[in-house]
């Protein structure tokens, strides 16, 4: 379909979604709607092995929610706005394929929350992060109070959310908010390289591993371990599971078919 506020490209099994509202790429209702449609299409396309999300231009992945859209909304309309972000980000989080955020600049508020729904975050050395909502008299409403402490710990999450400070890429790396920091000039090259490596892995095992981690993090340890063994059995019983074990025993390179 034709998108208006995001761009989609596909090459070698990797889809790149670019938020296309430069220079700041604010997150509004239409962005959420188009992300939902795009992720649904990607989920249904077996040829897609990995996804990259980034922002148009060099100033921002997303500098936050579209405050101009939100400013005059009623409480009911704000709830609908929030529900749209919840659905979009949850679909990204639960996509059965790895998702990498390529953070090319400002990544604030909803921008940070969008990246928290991704599996990996690779930041340009120019990137800035933060949950500055408290400075506007509000709080994060698209996952910041929930996904952020799960990723970097409660104390650091409270520090970012309560103070509303902006941090640089090096600080984000040190607290575990991002996986890697690279020069802006090589951001997409490094991200694509990482995505291509992920794309070589068997799809069934990738899906089972992601589901085990994401779902298991919200379960008690006994239930999570039960889920893990169930997903292990599914991966073991898959054609790729059998191929991987056979290839190992026969000392050859496996030929995975994503089945």
Summarize, please.
With 259 residues, the protein is an alpha/beta fold. It is built from 11 helices and 10 strands.
Radius of gyration: 19 Å
Main β-sheet, spatial strand arrangement: 1-2-3-5-7-10
CATH class of the largest domain: Alpha Beta
Number of strands: 10
Helix content: 40-55%
Biggest sheet details: 6 strands, mixed
**What general outline do the C-alpha atoms trace?**
globular
- Overall domain count: 2
Average pLDDT figure: 97
Discrete helix count: 11
Give the topology string: H per helix, E per strand. Answer: EEHEEHHEEHEEHHEHEHHHH
For the record, the CATH architecture of the largest domain stands as Alpha-Beta Complex
Describe this structure in words.
- The protein is an alpha/beta fold and 259 residues long.
- The protein has two domains: 6-199, 2-enoyl-CoA Hydratase, Chain A, domain 1 (Alpha-Beta Complex), CATH 3.90.226; 203-249, Lyase 2-enoyl-coa Hydratase, Chain  A, domain 2 (Orthogonal Bundle), CATH 1.10.12.
- It has helices at residues 29-44, 67-70, 75-94, 110-116, 144-152, 154-163, 169-174, 187-199, 203-216, 221-237, 239-249; strands at 6-11, 14-19, 50-55, 60-62, 99-103, 106-108, 120-124, 128-130, 166-168, 180-182.
- The strands form two sheets. A six-stranded mixed β-sheet has the order 1-2-3-5-7-10, sandwiched between helices. A four-stranded mixed β-sheet has the order 4-6-8-9.
- A hairpin with a 2-residue loop joins strand 1 and strand 2 (14-19).
- Helix 4 (110-116) crosses helix 5 and helix 5 (144-152) packs across helix 6.
- The longest helix has 20 residues, at 75-94.
- The radius of gyration is 19 Å and the shape is globular.
- The chain starts with 5 loop residues before the first strand and ends in a 10-residue tail after the last helix.
């Amino acid at each position: 379909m034709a998108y208006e506020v995001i761009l989609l490209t596909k090459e070698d099994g990797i889809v790149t979604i670019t938020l296309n509202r430069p220079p700041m790429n604010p997150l509004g209702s239409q962005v959420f709607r188009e992300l939902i449609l795009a992720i649904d299409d990607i989920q249904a396309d077996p040829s897609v092995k990995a996804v990259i999300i980034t922002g148009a231009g060099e100033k921002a992945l997303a500098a936050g929610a579209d405050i101009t859209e939100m400013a005059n909304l009623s409480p009911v309309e704000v709830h609908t706005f929030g529900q749209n972000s919840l659905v979009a980000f949850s679909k990204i989080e639960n996509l059965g394929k790895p998702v990498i955020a390529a953070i090319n600049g400002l990544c604030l508020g909803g921008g940070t929350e969008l990246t928290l729904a991704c599996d990996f975050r690779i930041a340009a050395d120019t990137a800035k992060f933060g949950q500055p909502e408290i400075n506007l008299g509000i709080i994060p409403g698209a996952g910041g109070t929930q996904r952020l402490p799960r990723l970097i710990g409660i104390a650091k999450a409270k520090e970012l959310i309560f103070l509303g400070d902006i941090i640089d890429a090096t600080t984000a790396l040190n607290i575990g908010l991002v996986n890697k920091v690279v020069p802006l000039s090589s951001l997409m090259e490094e991200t694509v390289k990482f995505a291509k490596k992920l794309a070589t892995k068997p799809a069934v095992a990738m899906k089972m591993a992601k589901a085990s981690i994401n779902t298991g993090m919200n379960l008690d340890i006994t239930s999570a371990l039960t889920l893990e063994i169930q997903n292990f059995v599914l991966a073991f019983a898959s054609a790729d599971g059998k191929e991987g074990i056979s290839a190992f025993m026969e000392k050859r390179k496996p030929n995975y078919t994503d089945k």
